[in-house]
Amino acid sequence: MSAAVKSLGVLAATVHILDPTERTPAVLLAGTDVTDPAVAEQITNPKCWSGAPSTADPASPKAPRKPKTA
C-alpha cells in the first residue's frame, strides 16, 4: 500500500528548473502540482505559486524593502 503524496503547491507560472535526480534542465508548466521538495525549493519567486507554497516558513516572512530616500 503506497502512501499518498502531499502536494506542496500548484504553479501559477511556467518555471525552468534542474531535475533533482538527473541534473538536467526541465520546464514545469503553469498548473503543475509540485510534490517533490527538491523541486519546490528551486522555485524561489513567490509569484510563480498559485497561493503560497506550503514549503515557506510562516514564522519568518520577509518584509518588503523600503525605498531609499534621496
Q: What is the element string, with H for helices and E for strands?
A: EEEEH
Gyration radius over CA:
15 Å
Low-confidence stretches: 55-60
- The number of E-state strands comes to 4
- Percent strand: 15-25%
Q: How many helical elements?
A: 1
The side-by-side strand order for the widest beta sheet comes to: 1-4
Estimate percent helicity. under 10%
Mean pLDDT: 82
Q: SS-based structural class?
A: mainly beta
Description:
- 6% of the residues lie in helices and 17% in strands.
- β2 (15-18) and β3 form a beta hairpin.
- It has a two-stranded antiparallel sheet with strand order 1-4. A two-stranded antiparallel ribbon has the order 2-3.
- The radius of gyration is 15 Å and the shape is elongated.
- It has one helix at 37-40; strands at residues 9-10, 15-18, 25-28, 33-34.
- It contains 1 helix and 4 strands; from the N terminus they run ββββα.
- It is mainly beta.
- The longest helix is centred in the middle third of the chain and has 4 residues, at 37-40.
Summarize the structure.
The chain is mainly beta and about 70 residues long. Helix content is about 5%, strand content about 15%.
Features:
70 residues, mainly beta, elongated, 17% strand, 6% helix
Would you spell out the secondary-structure blueprint of this structure?
Elements: E1 9-10, E2 15-18, E3 25-28, E4 33-34, H1 37-40
Antiparallel strand pairs: 1-4, 2-3
